[in-house]
Amino acid sequence: MSLSRLFTLFAGLLLAATVSAHSFKLGALELGHPWSRAMPEASPTGAAYLSIKNTGKEADTLLSVSTPRADKAELHVHLNDNGVMRMRQVESVAVAAGAEVKFAPGGYHIMLMGLKQPLKAGDHFPLTLKFAKAGTVTVDVIVEKDAPMAMEH
Ligand SMILES: [Cu+2]
């Protein structure tokens, strides 16, 4: 293998590592790996996930989310209601000092309603999160390919 080819390969690996582990910072908050699942083209809704780690000494609260990609973005949670998984909108999500809240399938998620473009693997779009104390931050959400599950919503 030539040196230049090796270099290209190495640069490619670096890029891949950056993409799969992207994170954002807002004061004491670390926002890890915002991602969204690719959805069939006809789907009007989707969901976005990320982790929020509070490295500070004060609790904070996620108040709202918004994105130009959808008409509306809401904070949702899945709850087990007597054995039936149900989804509910929540007013806000608290992030205690030193805690990490994970948005993940089956739990907290950011519901995207009225998608303006289908969520295709490889796309990315901005998502703005507003916190009570830390303020506002815009993260880059990467759409990842995953077996699109039948809409749970
Ligand atoms: Cu939902």
What does this structure look like?
The protein is mainly beta and about 150 residues long. It has a single domain (about 25-145), classed as Immunoglobulin-like (Sandwich), CATH 2.60.40. The protein is built from one helix and eleven strands. The protein has one helix spanning about 5-20, and strands at about 25, 30-35, 45-55, 60-65, 70-80, 85-90, 95, 100, 110-115, 125-130, 135-145. Strands 1, 2, 3, 4, 5, 6, 7, 8, 9, 10 and 11 form an eleven-stranded mixed beta sheet that branches. Strand 5 and strand 6 form a beta hairpin. The longest helix has 18 residues, at about 5-20. The radius of gyration is 17 Å and the shape is globular. About 25% of the residues are buried. The protein binds copper (II) ion (CU). Copper (II) ion (CU) binds near residues 76, 87, 109 and 111. Copper (II) ion (CU) binds near residues 76 and 109.
List keywords for this structure.
single chain; 153 residues; mainly beta; Immunoglobulin-like; eleven-stranded mixed β-sheet; 12% helix; globular; binds copper (II) ion
